């Protein structure tokens, strides 16, 4: 079925994008401030450092914390600002073309891939859990699910009628799917880091 723009804007998705974007932005901004603090005083004790297992300093000071040559949190500050703006635009009545939705989907897919890689680095290489990073992980997963399932169920991403029906059903279960994803990540972290016994 070709994509046809619905007369009714996806208000629920818009509100969720604004809320998730605000949470992600707050986490990225806090990490950015912590990075500035570290640059000014490498020996500074950051408020997000709780123990050798839970803290931001190790992540921010590693090469993984600046993969593209600048601090990763700056990506979050920019990216989550875009997500908030898109949510607000939908609430104001904006209607986007298919290419825009596909571009958004590509962006959140890239964010999810980057987050999964960072999670792996935290679990398997750095052996530390960054609180603000985990907040970012927490919102990136459902944002990817919400945007992707919305695009599938509305036909923005081409698919059969069965695919659209499955996506529509899954869309109403995003909360449960997200919790399942969290449990998978927590299980991997526990098996690799044994964090429950090290806290």
Distinctive features:
VKOR_Actinobacteria; de novo design (two linked rop proteins); quinone; mainly alpha; 199 residues
Describe the secondary structure blueprint for this structure.
Elements: H1 11-40, H2 57-61, H3 73-91, H4 98-126, H5 131-153, H6 161-171, H7 174-193, H8 195-198
Helix pairs in contact: 1-3, 1-5, 4-5, 5-6, 5-7
Subcellular location: Membrane
Family: Belongs to the VKOR family.
Membrane topology: Multi-pass membrane protein
Could you characterize what this model shows?
- Helix content is 71%, strand content 0%.
- The chain has 199 residues and is mainly α.
- Helix 1 (11-40) packs antiparallel against helix 3, helix 4 packs antiparallel against helix 5 and helix 5 (131-153) runs antiparallel to helix 7.
- The mean pLDDT is 93.
- The chain has 8 helices and no strands.
- It has helices at residues 11-40, 57-61, 73-91, 98-126, 131-153, 161-171, 174-193, 195-198.
- It comes from Cryobacterium zongtaii.
- Residues 10-151 form the Vitamin K epoxide reductase domain.
């Amino acid at each position: 079925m070709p994509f046809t723009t619905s007369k009714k804007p996806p208000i629920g998705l818009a509100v969720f994008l604004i809320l998730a974007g605000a949470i992600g932005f707050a986490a990225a901004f806090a990490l950015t401030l912590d990075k500035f603090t570290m640059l000014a005083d490498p020996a500074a004790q950051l408020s997000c450092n709780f123990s050798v297992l839970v803290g931001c300093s190790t992540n921010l000071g590693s090469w993984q914390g600046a993969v593209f040559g600048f601090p990763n949190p700056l990506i979050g500050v920019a990216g989550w600002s875009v997500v908030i703006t898109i949510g607000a635009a939908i609430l104001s009545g904006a209607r986007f073309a298919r290419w825009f939705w596909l571009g958004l989907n590509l962006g959140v897919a890239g964010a999810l891939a980057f987050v999964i890689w960072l999670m792996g680095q935290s679990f398997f290489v750095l052996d530390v859990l960054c609180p603000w990073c985990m907040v970012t992980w927490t919102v990136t997963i459902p944002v990817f699910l919400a945007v992707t399932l919305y695009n599938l169920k509305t036909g923005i991403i081409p698919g059969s009628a069965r695919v659209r029906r499955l996506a529509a059903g899954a869309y109403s279960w995003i909360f449960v799917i997200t919790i399942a994803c969290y449990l998978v990540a927590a299980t991997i972290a526990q098996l690799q880091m044994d964090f429950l016994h090290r806290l």
